[in-house]
Amino acid sequence: MTGFHGRRGVAVVAFAQSEHSFSDLGWTEADLVMPLVNEVLATTGLRRSEIGFTCSGSNDYLVGTPFSFVAALDTIGAWPPISESHVEQDAAWALYEAWVRIQHGDVDTALVYGFGKGTVGDYAGISSLSYDPYYIAPLMPGDIGMAGLQARALKDAGFDVDPDPTPPPATDGAAAVILAAADVARGVCPRPAWITGLDHRIEPHSVGARDLTRSASTRQAALRAGVSAGPVDFAELHTRFEHEEPLLRRELGLEEDTVVNASGGPRKADPIMATGLIRIGEAAARIHDGSARRTVAHATAGPCLQHNLVCVLEAGEEAGEAGED
Amino acid sequence: MGNRCAVIGVGQTQYRAKRTDVSLAGLVREAALRALDDAGLTFADIDSVVLGKAPDMFEGVATPELYLADALGAAGKPMMRVHTAGSVGGSTALVGASQVQAGVHDRVLAVAFEKQSESNATWALSTHSPFSASLVVGAGGYFAPYIRAYIRRSGAPGNIGMMVAVKDRLNALRNPYAHLKIPDIDLAMVEKSMMLWDPIRYLETCPSSDGAVAMVLGSERAAAAATAVTGRRPAWVHGAAMRSEPMGMAGRDSVDPRAGRDCAADVYRQAGVTEPRRQFAAAETYVPFSWYEPMWLENLGFADKGAGWKLTESGATAFDGDIPWNPSGGVLSSNPIGASGMIRFAEAAQQVRGQAGEHQVAAAADGAGLALGHAYGGGSQFFAMWAVGAAKP
């Protein structure tokens, strides 16, 4: 409960993800998102008008068009007009914004979704455009090249990792989550996945300014989210590259017996900008289906794990009530 | 709702066509340092950073919060990146305020910027998705039909837009940060300027600017501490809301969008505003094309439907009118798109803090009145607004 004393109890009460595709099936963002929104609403029995806040995450550069989130908004039934916002980040950060919004006390539910069409762009090029535009982007190192720097640093530090990282296949997909505050959560979900810790931290952008054998921001977020306050049955980590897992395991303080990425993880489905939200959704799903009592989800952004978010989810009435104010 | 939140520091850069003297990082840092200085704080005092800007194609830098984390002192802190089209500056302020209202953070640095000289705004604003036809019309071409519909519906005389263009540019002469300074502007000059998207003339449209704005948003405790150090009073958030509606829905009124009306109603309910024209001492609203002043006067309830242009025509919205709109010169005088919404929010705060300098509206500085900050975006479908006042809500 570290850092969560006095917070409103909020739970993930529904999660849906697309059948991710490694090729472009001609689906628009709207095609990807709409069935999932319908699915999470159906799972909870909530009507669109009962959603208090909506927040999404996406990246215009993936399909090379401005305002890619506008088309998605057309599909979610934003009429009458809704209270809504968007982050140009992985939708895990949209979930963070929604969780913050629910803490105000006047809104009890939030819909969060993220989507990415990775198959229609060149991600090495797109990722390069998210680096320092004066000194790094012109070199076009790409996400794989940057990951290689970290893999090599870890190998040299004694980690048993492949220093030549391979990326996950480009993926099209989306995910949606519904968050609900305590009373509503209990009413719409038999086993709510209570958010008992949620924090994110960013680090300097330049990889030269960081010790790549550490992830200080993951460690910081994990501490604030209270990961070590209890056993972790499952962890869903935003590991686009294999060498990131041992590093994140260490920085999160996970025990040997914690199962990581039982879902297959980002290596098996990486719809960029939904990949992080899917980690939270999958970690929540283990609680929804009764296979876990306490899980951890992690999302990341930027070269070599620059920005990290950690979410702790727990089963049980007590988790929700302990967080009540 | 939630905990009280106040604007305790505001910083703006000079708005210009090209800020070739600074990098992207230098630009945002300039605004951030000025806001921190205004609040009597340093980066070390900040708990969380929220960055907003419009499409990343404006600079050709994707998800620039990653690169800008260092310049904004965000290392070791949470950082968010908001993008809600043209309303993003307003939304960014609201996302920052939300963290204070939620009781999650005490001091949040909210920053919005655009460096439009890095790219071509009309290209970057024209959707060219592989799945749908591109109109390649930019913002002016998109909104001109809405304006023509407004003129037809309201029967407004053809010179109302020109009056707004003159008024906002005269106001800009009082604002040291404003981009466009046209001292001898008058109706004849506006009328003679080239027609770009009928009925929008060159001088009835916003410029393309480089610039950044920053605000420090604080809790009650942080506000008291800042005032004790600086002697400057905070601007309290009395009401805040966002609303969005679909672009592609038949039956939505894109001239007088319901999302705008609903958003205003939500803010007014929170702030106890029943007569906006009387209760607001000043309004900073998102008017990128001159005719949007009478359109928003109606949408925001300052005038009855069809009568917004009469307020403009009567001079009520002028600097010496009873409800000055855009005393800073508005979007028509400075337009770094991603920042333009937050500039409205920040200018509204400066009015009630009594810190607006030469463009201070006297009635806003007396401590009792409220000021409105407003932003819109997309196809007139995204709205962000707040009402701020010197009195604690």
Explain the overall architecture:
The complex is a heterodimer of chains A (325) and B (393). By secondary structure, chain A is an alpha/beta fold. Chain A has a 10-stranded mixed sheet with strand order 3-2-4-5-1-6-10-9-7-8, sandwiched between helices. The radius of gyration of chain A is 19 Å and the shape is globular. Helix content of chain A is 31%, strand content 21%. Mean pLDDT of chain A is 94; it is low at 320-325. Chain A has a single domain (10-121, 166-322), classed as 3-Layer(aba) Sandwich (Peroxisomal Thiolase, Chain A, domain 1). Chain B is of the alpha/beta class and 393 residues long. Helices cover 35% and strands 18% of the residues of chain B. Chain B has helices at 24-39, 65-68, 88-101, 121-125, 138-154, 160-172, 187-192, 220-230, 258-271, 276-279, 292-299, 308-314, 337-353, and strands at residues 6-12, 48-52, 79-82, 107-115, 195-197, 200-201, 210-218, 235-244, 280-284, 370-377, 382-389. In chain B, strand 5 and strand 6 (200-201) form a beta hairpin. In chain B, helix 3 (88-101) crosses helix 13 (337-353) and helix 11 crosses helix 12. Classes of the chains: A alpha/beta (325), B alpha/beta (393).
Would you spell out the secondary-structure blueprint of this structure?
The complex is a heterodimer of chains A (325) and B (393).
Chain A (H helix, E strand, L loop, with lengths): L9 E8 L11 H16 L8 E5 L10 H6 L10 E4 L3 H12 L6 E9 L5 H6 L13 H15 L15 E10 H7 L4 E10 L13 H10 L8 E3 L7 H9 L6 E2 L14 H14 L5 E8 L5 E8 L2 H6 L3
Parallel strand pairs in A: 2-3, 2-4, 7-8, 7-9
Antiparallel strand pairs in A: 1-5, 1-6, 4-5, 6-10, 9-10
Helix pairs in contact in A: 3-9
Chain B lengths: L5 E7 L11 H16 L8 E5 L12 H4 L10 E4 L5 H14 L5 E9 L5 H5 L12 H17 L5 H13 L14 H6 L2 E3 L2 E2 L8 E9 L1 H11 L4 E10 L13 H14 L4 H4 E5 L7 H8 L8 H7 L22 H17 L16 E8 L4 E8 L4
Parallel strand pairs in B: 2-3, 2-4, 9-10
Antiparallel strand pairs in B: 1-7, 1-8, 4-7, 5-6, 8-11, 10-11
Helix pairs in contact in B: 3-13, 11-12
